[in-house]
């Protein structure tokens, strides 16, 4: 991918961009979350995105986070439209036993969080973010070949021009280096649904 098409939303203090690699060193107390459950709001994570009006595509990236070692340290994919409308997927460190592989969709100012526990020893993860108009699919993979669905969602503000890319943050008192490689933009790998027909209205 041509990384010159990407721009920072909240540039991190420490970062490096190579020909096909992006490194972000997170700052403490950076996060993306809005209101739900404990009314906390944080909207200061660094985000590196490109803009598109393309309605059908897939974006793939490999994340590496060997230095992640503090609760909620995270890095992954993001589609950040504005502070109250965005989605993200990542591995979030929890403790020496397990981490959370999950995703967040924030719609009109309220975040959800869907997760599954994975081993704390995992230090890399691939993601595939696919768009079909204003519907989106997030998938993950351990090897970059076999992808598994994490979630499908609809974004009410996601039907026109969007921005998507990568992010990293450390919500508590910590910092780590996140490395992003193997970024690729392809035709949409999320095929049209071929099962039950929609109900007639």
Oligomer: single chain
β-sheet strand percentage: over 45%
Give a short account of the largest sheet: 8 strands, antiparallel
Query: Compute the gyration radius: what is it?
Result: 16 Å
Based on DSSP secondary structure assignment, what is the total number of beta strands?
17
The low-confidence runs, each spanning 5 or more residues with pLDDT under 50, are: none
Shape: globular
Order of helices and strands: EEEEEEEEEEEEEEEEE
As a percent range, the share of helical residues equals: under 10%
Residue-averaged pLDDT: 96
| Structure class | mainly beta
Counting H and I runs of at least 4 residues, what is the number of helices? Answer: 0
3D structure, described in words:
The protein has 201 residues and is mostly beta strands. It is 0% helix and 55% strand. The chain contains no helices and 17 strands. Strands 1, 6, 8, 9, 10, 11, 12 and 16 form an 8-stranded antiparallel β-sheet that branches. The radius of gyration is 16 Å and the shape is globular. The termini are far apart. The model has no long low-confidence stretch (mean pLDDT 96).
Short description:
With 201 residues, the protein is an all-beta fold. The protein contains no helices and 17 strands.
Which features would summarize this protein structure in a list?
201 residues, mainly beta, 8-stranded antiparallel beta sheet, 7-stranded antiparallel beta sheet, 17 strands, globular
List the helices and strands and how they pair.
Blueprint: E1 6-9, E2 14-17, E3 21-25, E4 32-34, E5 41-43, E6 47-52, E7 56-64, E8 74-82, E9 85-93, E10 98-107, E11 110-111, E12 114-119, E13 124-132, E14 135-141, E15 148-154, E16 162-169, E17 177-186
Antiparallel strand pairs: 1-6, 2-3, 3-17, 4-5, 6-16, 7-13, 7-17, 8-9, 8-16, 9-10, 10-11, 10-12, 13-14, 14-15
């Amino acid at each position: 991918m041509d990384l010159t098409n990407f721009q920072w939303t909240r540039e991190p203090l420490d970062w490096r961009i190579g020909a096909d690699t992006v490194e972000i060193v997170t700052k403490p107390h950076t996060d993306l979350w809005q209101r739900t459950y404990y009314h906390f709001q944080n909207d200061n994570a660094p985000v590196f995105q490109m803009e598109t009006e393309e309605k059908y595509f897939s974006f793939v990236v490999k994340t590496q986070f060997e230095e992640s070692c503090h609760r909620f340290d995270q890095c992954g994919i993001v589609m950040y439209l504005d502070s109250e409308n965005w989605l993200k997927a990542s591995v979030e460190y929890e403790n020496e036993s397990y981490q959370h592989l999950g995703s967040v969709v924030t719609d009109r100012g309220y975040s959800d969080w869907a997760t599954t526990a994975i081993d704390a020893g995992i230090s890399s993860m691939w993601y595939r973010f696919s768009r079909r108009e204003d519907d989106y699919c997030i998938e993950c993979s351990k090897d970059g070949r076999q992808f598994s669905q994490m979630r499908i969602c609809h974004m009410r503000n996601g039907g026109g021009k969007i921005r998507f890319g990568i992010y990293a943050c450390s919500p508590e008192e910590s910092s780590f280096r996140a490395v992003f490689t193997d970024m690729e933009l392809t035709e949409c790998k999320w095929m049209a649904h071929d099962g039950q027909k929609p109900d007639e209205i």
